[in-house]
Amino acid sequence: MNTMTEAAPVRPIEPTSYHVKEGNQGIALKIKDFKLWYGQSQALHGIDMEIQKGQVTALIGPSGCGKSTLLRSLNRMNDLIDELKIDGRIDVGDFDMYGPGVDVIALRKRMGMVFQKPNPFAMSIYDNVVYPLRVDGVTKKSILDEVCERSLRSAAIWDEVKDRLNESALGMSGGQQQRLCIARGIASDPEVLLMDEPCSALDPIATAKIEELISQLRGQYTIVIVTHNMQQAARVSDNTGFMYLGRLIEYGATDTIFTKPHKEQTHDYVTGRFG
Amino acid sequence: MANPEDSISTAAIGVSTGKPATRTGGKRVRSFTADLSAVGEPALWGFGGALAIGIILIAGFLAIIAWNGFTTFWPKPIEQVELVDGTVIAGEPTRYNTFTVGESVLARLNDAQRQEIEDNFGFANRTLYKTANFDLYGDDFTWAADFDIANVERPSGYYLFERQQWGTFVGFPASLVIGGEETAYDQGLMQREQRAARSRFADIRRLERRDIGRINHNQERARLDSRKALLQYGENDPRYLARVEVNNARIAELQNEFVEVQQRISDIRAIDSQYRVILEEVNGRTVDTNLSQIVRFYAANDVNWFQQAGIYLSRWGEFLTTEPREANTQGGVLPAIFGTVAMTMLMVVFVAPFGVITALYLREYAKQGKLVSIVRISVNNLAGVPSIVYGVFGLGFFAYTMGTTIDQLFYAERLPSPTFGTGGLLWASLTLALLTVPVVIVATEEALSAVPRSMREGSLACGASKWQTIRYVVLPKALPGIMTGMILAMARGAGEVAPLMLVGVVKLAPALPIDGFAPFIHLERSFMHLGFHIFDVGFQSRNSEAGKPMVFVTTLLLLGLIVLMNATAIYVRNRLKKKYAGSQF
Ligand SMILES: Nc1ncnc2c1ncn2[C@@H]1O[C@H](COP(=O)(O)OP(=O)(O)OP(=O)(O)O)[C@@H](O)[C@H]1O
Ligand SMILES: [Mg+2]
After folding, report:
1. Could you say which of B267, B321, B367, B429 has the lowest number of CB atoms within 10 Å?
2. DSSP category for residue B86
3. Which residues of B fall within a CB distance of 8 Å from A122?
């Protein structure tokens, strides 16, 4: 049940031993029998899934199968929706993120998120990138400058914007905006990066850049990416989960899913024979 | 198209979407009934026509105000009119109209005239002359019917004098008194001396306003201080007696200063009365006036275009920068401009935070349910409450309830004369803020809901709290929309008059709400307002015909002021828009 709100008692989450930087092995997120209802209609039917640290996990499946819903459950973005009901648990480190007394804001600070449509804020490029730090209370200019440059470099956009950091982010192209959003997503050095169809609004060149970026970030971050593009999933991910009608039909190494899946439905979907 | 069914359906679509022709027996026939309504052409004409009528009405309305407003100050010629009964009048022709000739008038006319009026269905034309010289005739205007006029000329030599008191004078300067000695009239001499006299007049004004004003203010303060001590300590307390002694000494000291200033004023006055002009009107009656009383004068029928333009500009200058005189029918409207702007600004200061915070709560924090819907509907309906009701509320609640309480708590020594317990700038602004707050709330709510959900989610996903999201992402993005609401509220508030009459606007305010005495901004003071000035000058004054032209000038000014304030706000908004919005890929 979605009984906690943002005003729930605060239990601070320290960056724990769990952080990827201190070990690339293990499980980042453990989803256990997770169910979700939008009002009366059930969108997720008991998902069980373990997301590996430092690896790229892709979620594929036909439209409306609940990929975004699952992804948004991982940083509790669904809390914004009224009439939402939840059952089951998602463990991050050693506790249930839907358990009582969890500080949602602190939780979200550990998760970066990139959305389907680029959504830069109406501020300068610089302010966009350091926004996660600013809301965290960081005011020291040297830290902000350093983070800004590092994030923009990581997002492969530094060279394009380094001379116009103080211009509005809304003046950039769509692909640049999306890479800016990725830079923003990784600015606070999160443990998990959640990406919901990050390339769907982009042209092939920008898409290629972002795929390359994901490959570079592999190992540093745990990445969960939702995509409709089968080739993309095959190219960038280590593990792939195939979802259908709110269920996780098959989950395993990407090679396996794409070459010799165990389930008929998976096979049909990845070969494009899906009705 | 191979499928026969396909072609049928295409044909059907062709008719219903209004292709100009349908096929009937192999011939193309235009089918108007079906086509016109389908194309929507009648509606198009209707809408276009309605728009055109609307635009014409507004343009005509503005043109009338602009024409009347802009021409009022242009100097007009003076006509000398000889009537059939032998009387002679002189004045500016101000307007013409047609009237029904009464029985008694008809009776005294000759047959030819009567016949002419009869041919005209009983109507005749007449002209309104501004004959001025109110001090001699007790009226500024005279109607002259066409059939009464024997002769009209515009003889050279007529002057128009605008006087500090008694309005204008139409006639001739007969002679001058310079330094107590009578001399013949000379235009150059008069111009020079009049200018000198005006600066003497300004000196007197300044002494009266600034020096005596300061003395009065300080005496009043000392008096109030004594009274305060009385209320605080009681009658026989030594502290009270000590304070009284100090204050009385101060009052006596100020009284000496007062006498001194008075002396200086009467010295200037004595000089002033040595410089006079004797004016003579068309029928030979004379008026003896101090030169300092002449605001402006010109030979109405002898000025060329450039001089006319000069007079025109100087009249505008006077209008915009001086105080009214002659029961508001002449002089300027500076206090009213000031009052209007000050009140509107203050209103924005009140309405902005109040409206924005309310809308923020309604849209962002309150749980969207029945209760919020009811609140929202009520707020929207508040905009439909007659504005005078707000005036009554402002008077009853702000002035009488809150004001009286404030007076009792903080201004007890001034009672029974109220400080905040009566209408004033503060209460008027608050009343108008209340009146315009629905506009701001509605606009702000709309602006907030127009902020894309994706932006909020982006911010929350960064680990921002709800308030941080609102503060850094939502509000900046909504700011132009909020500004639009503010602009609408400002326009509404600046043009509102009815409620103001109850909560602090007066026809003639003794002092501006901002002056040199601490605390400099006097929110409790009553003030003047252009909207009320229009009403007062045109319809409430002793000499409302004289005020009528001012109605248009003041209306023009009020419109101009509102346009100016809105243009400023729109400029600011567009700057903000540019700052916060770029191309969305
Ligand atoms: N806010 C919401 N309120 C109600 N139902 C929702 C909401 N968001 C999603 N749903 C429903 O939940 C189901 C899963 O939606 P979701 O957005 O997770 O699908 P998806 O797999 O991301 O699809 P796509 O590939 O088209 O993005 C759909 O049936 C959708 O209609
Ligand atoms: Mg989706």
Report:
1. B367
2. S
3. 455, 473, 476-477, 580-581
Give me the pLDDT at residue B10, please. 41
Which residues have CB atoms below 5 A from the ion given as ligand 2?
A: A 68
Helices of type H across B120-237: 134-137, 187-206, 213-233
CA-proximal residue: ligand 1, atom 14 (nearest): A66
Q: A171: which chain B residues are within 8 Å (Cβ-Cβ)? A: 582-583
Contacts of B35 (CB under 8 A, 6+ apart): B18, B19, B20
For A23-37, how does the pLDDT look when each residue is reduced to its tens digit (9 = 90+)? 557 888 889 999 999
Q: Are residues B363 and B487 in the same domain?
A: yes
**Chain B environment of A181 (Cβ under 8 Å):** 458
- B584 occurs within a structural domain: no
Pocket of ligand 1 (CB under 6 A): A 38, 43, 61, 63-69, 81
The whole-model pTM stands at 0.77
Q: By CA distance, what is A120's nearest residue in B?
A: B455
Ligand nearest the Cα of residue A72 is 1
Task: Judge contact between B265 and B167, C-beta under 8 A.
Answer: no
- Taking only the tens place, the pLDDT of each residue in A176-230 is 888 899 899 888 888 889 999 888 877 788 788 888 888 888 888 899 999 988 8
Reference B347, options B487, B459, B195; nearest CA is B487
Going by the DSSP 8-state scheme, the letter that residue A21 receives in this structure is G
Phi, psi angle pair for B336, to nearest 5°? -70, -40
Q: Are B416 and B547 part of one and the same domain?
A: yes
In a 10 Å sphere around its CB, with 0-12 CB exposed, 13-18 middle and 19+ buried, how is residue B367 labelled? exposed
A206 or A259, higher pLDDT: A259
**Domain extent at residue B116:** 79-156
- Evaluate whether A196 touches A169 at the Cβ level (below 8 Å): no
What ipTM, to 2 d.p.? 0.86
Is B316 a domain residue?
Answer: no
> Which-ligand-closest: CA of A41?
1
Residues B360 and B240 in one domain: no
In a domain, B397, yes or no: yes
The DSSP line for B369-391 is SHHHHHHHHHHHHHTTS-HHHHH
Mark whether B428 and B484 lie in a shared domain.
yes
In chain B the first and final C-alpha atoms are separated, in Å, by 40
Mean pLDDT of chain B: 82
Domain count, chain B: 3
Q: Are residues B406 and B503 in the same domain?
A: yes
Q: Are residues B341 and B484 in the same domain?
A: yes
Compare CB distances from A170 to B463, B473, B584 and report the shortest one's residue: B584
Mean pLDDT calculated for residue range B518-534: 80
Assess if residue B366 is contained within a domain. Answer: yes
Is residue A194 helix, strand or coil?
A: strand
3 state SS of B83: strand
Give the strand pairing for B149-153 and B79-83: antiparallel
Same structural domain, B384 and B513? yes
